[in-house]
From TrEMBL:
Protein name: tRNA:Cm32/Um32 methyltransferase
Tagged with keyword S-adenosyl-L-methionine: yes
GO function terms (MF aspect): RNA binding; RNA methyltransferase activity
Segments crossing the lipid bilayer: none
GO biological process: tRNA nucleoside ribose methylation
Species assigned in the record: Orrella dioscoreae
Family: Belongs to the class IV-like SAM-binding methyltransferase superfamily. RNA methyltransferase TrmH family.
Domain (tRNA/rRNA methyltransferase SpoU type): residue spans on this chain: 1-142
GO CC annotations on file: cytosol
Amino acid sequence: MGSAARAIKTMGFGDLVLVAPRLPDITTHPEAIALSSGAADVLERAQVVETLEEALAPVTLAFAMTARPRELGPPVCDIRQAAGQARQHLADTPHGRVAVVMGTEKSGLTNAHIALCHRICHIPANPEYSSLNVAQALQLAVWEMRYALLSPGDATWRPAAADALPSGSRPAASDKVQALLTHWEEALVAVRFLDPQHPKKLMPRMRHLLGRSALTQDEVDMLRGVCTAMIDTARRR
């Protein structure tokens, strides 16, 4: 974590969020502080949360960093493409927030973690030996992000004015999309389209479908209205 904080600061970033770290005092651990090598302020300000859902609640575009292929999941891109997408997202979205999500060095990200993200991202390393620790992978990720944001000839990489888009037209935050998915599942059960005893892969496929759609807040509100109507109609019948 100390090395990760250093990687972030060298590229001009400062937000580090830790999900259920193994050591509860990791942000003040002497070895972590030593490895941060001048980036102890990033480590000290690191936010510690219990779940990835909580970490991604305010995020509007999340990249899951993984080297393993997945049968189901969000669209796949490499880290350079991800950086370009992040740059465009921030330019188009006044209140946009981008996150790069990494798992533990031992086991990486689970399918459940990846399902909470909008894109799968990989580093095109040597296919015969692609092992990188978290700090190394993060250093490459933030370098690409910085390079994309500071592209020559483009001095307007920061988000536009807050009133550039109506609030409802902004990309929906992760917690709003997750609430929609919960509501959607309830509605599908109510109209007997989904059998909770034999769900098969319906909800994971629905999750990936909605995740690819880059829903706005207005669209999330509209779909939740549809869910409410489905549930009410099913109850009356």
